[in-house]
Amino acid sequence: MNTPSTVMPEKQAWLAMFALSMGFFMALMDQTMVAVALPEIQRDLDASINELLWVSSGYLLAVVVPLIFTGRLGDMYGQKLLYRLGLGVMACGAVVSAMAPSIEALIAGRIIQGFGSAIQMPQTMSVINRIFARERRGRALGVWGIIGSVAALLGPIVGGFLTGTFGWHAVFWVPIPIVIVAIILATLWVPKMPAVHRKIDAASVLALFVGLGSIIFAIQQAPDSDWAWWVFALIAVGVVGLILFVRLQDSAAARGTDALVPLELFADRNYRVGTLSIISMGFMSVTLALPVNLWVQDVQGFSANQAGLVMAPMAATSVISSPFAGILVDKLHPRRLSQFGFGTLIVGMGIMWWIISSGLNPWWLCLPAMLLGFGQSFVWGTNSATSMRDIKGELMGVASGVYNTFRQVGSVVGVALVSAAIQLGSANSGLQTGAASALLLIMLALVGGFAAVCFFKDTLHTTTGNQRP
């Protein structure tokens, strides 16, 4: 919930939103932009396949594992400070990556970039939830969510252009001036948030890092290791670490310290529902391009630029429809909006599966891509606004960190499972079958998201004794 000191006038709030969105956009585009440059990086740096995979895996691992901790740091030391610090670390990592003389140096640079993203990403959502009034957050968070989706879609297109025109180093040089501008604008436009002084529970941080790190690393390496025994052993270690983490949060007060993640967050029904449903969106947003691009390019013979154009309507439709969807978030029941959004996504994914499994002309994919873009406009903003609407201001940072962690875990799990589905389907019946199987898996994840949002309740349009469940 906001306090009067943090809510800003409309114009100033949108200026701050713009400054925050620049860093958020670059962090998410960075996750998909580099993938296109990997073949050239491999040739230039004489990297093995495993080393090459760590260019992306190292970045993602460095993003996901610290998110909850860095969100809490934002509550303690101020989101504005942490946002600018994260951007600065991102820029340093980009310089190291751009100047890397070896694959090892490049991996190190990517890990630095990922850690910078982990520092700044939770702060964006936290500040947005505090500078916009409770009844105006839906539109802002709708724009915020679509910015993330469009960033993921534009990454391969921008990365392909930069790599093809200037070489792979440009993929790391170009974001630097954008990050510098974002730091300047954040200094000018983003307000200083009240800090909450708390103790850092070192045992909780260690348990969290071991738990999340073991699970994420195991899932990342599972497809390439053919799901070896040590993958399951690491997952078991991770589960034990997370169980210990939860117990430490529950006993924090008795131990005379502050919980890293106050369990009272999950007493909020909408927050519980939102963190579960966002897993499916993380699953879809990062993995969709993989089966589609493989089928369009390797089976149908399209160029990389043509493949980008096939999915471009998804981004265009999202940009056009998101303001309208954001307005509705603050006016209608969140359950109905989310169900409509997820339902549209499921229908669009079903049509896309039918086109690919039938071997039709790839240009027909533009139609379901438009449906996907339209549908996600009603999910991103609704989910984030409804999840965070009733969270206390002093918990916004850690709540944002947990929320983003669930989304990123969905992405990591999605990449592993979709890759496995493509490999299994391709081995049995060819790449077309593998791509179609992967789309069915994504559709199943969206069905899970639809089921979760059925439990959203309306807390915005309520009066005493007349709450809409």
TrEMBL record:
Transmembrane segments: 12-29, 49-69, 81-100, 106-128, 140-162, 168-190, 202-221, 227-246, 273-296, 308-328, 340-356, 362-381, 402-422, 434-456
Localization: Cell membrane
Taxonomic lineage from the root: Bacteria, Bacillati, Actinomycetota, Actinomycetes, Mycobacteriales
GO MF annotation: an example: transmembrane transporter activity
UniProt topology in membrane: Multi-pass membrane protein
Gene3D superfamilies per the UniProt record, alphabetical: MFS general substrate transporter like domains, Multidrug resistance protein D
Keyword Chaperone: no
Protein name per UniProt: Antiseptic resistance protein
Domain of life assignment: Bacteria
